[in-house]
Amino acid sequence: MRLTVNTVEETQTLAARLAKLVQPGDTILLNGDLGAGKTTFTQGLARALGIRRPLKSPTFTLVREYQTENFPLYHLDVYRLGEEGGGDELGLAEYFGGEGVALIEWSEFIQSELPQDVLIIDLSRLDQDETGLLRTISVRATGPRSEAILAALEK
Ligand SMILES: Nc1ncnc2c1ncn2[C@@H]1O[C@H](COP(=O)(O)OP(=O)(O)O)[C@@H](O)[C@H]1O
Ligand SMILES: [Mg+2]
Q1: Residues with CB under 6 A from ligand 1
Q2: DSSP state of 102
Q3: Which CATH number fits domain 7-126: 3.90.1010.10, 3.40.50.720, 2.40.70.10, 3.40.50.300?
Q4: Which range has the worst mean pLDDT, 1-15, 37-51, 55-69, 94-108?
């Protein structure tokens, strides 16, 4: 699935649709460069789950946990592990496949910790066109659970 998003609202509308589909144990990877919209997407998803607390990027804490009505939401941003490495010693895998839903920014830095079945959301900023900055969001699945989410999202 691939779509063009022209505004923050469009990005967050997709995130809100995803919020209706996630279940405890789901892991979602948010890929894309700095400024691609990973945190913006997560904010849209969190708000749709009824989280009122402002969602701040957890760059220095690695993980922030939010409580929703039904499950915890874990927002991971492991960007700083890129320089330091050592992600596999931090026990981050405890956030995946358990009682909560995990969204991960810069998951490539904890590759060996990730479960097999994940929903991957690629956010990208393409070149400037005459109407502004073109952005696209692509979603793909790597296993049965994420395939089910993707199928529902495509409806
Ligand atoms: N369509 C869009 N989707 C997401 N963010 C957008 C969009 N258009 C503009 N922006 C802006 O781009 C920035 C994205 O920042 P952020 O979500 O923090 O990126 P990341 O977490 O990927 O580094 C925000 O300032 C946001 O307002
Ligand atoms: Mg971010």
Answers
A1: 5, 7-8, 10-11, 32, 34-40, 105, 135
A2: E
A3: 3.40.50.300
A4: 55-69
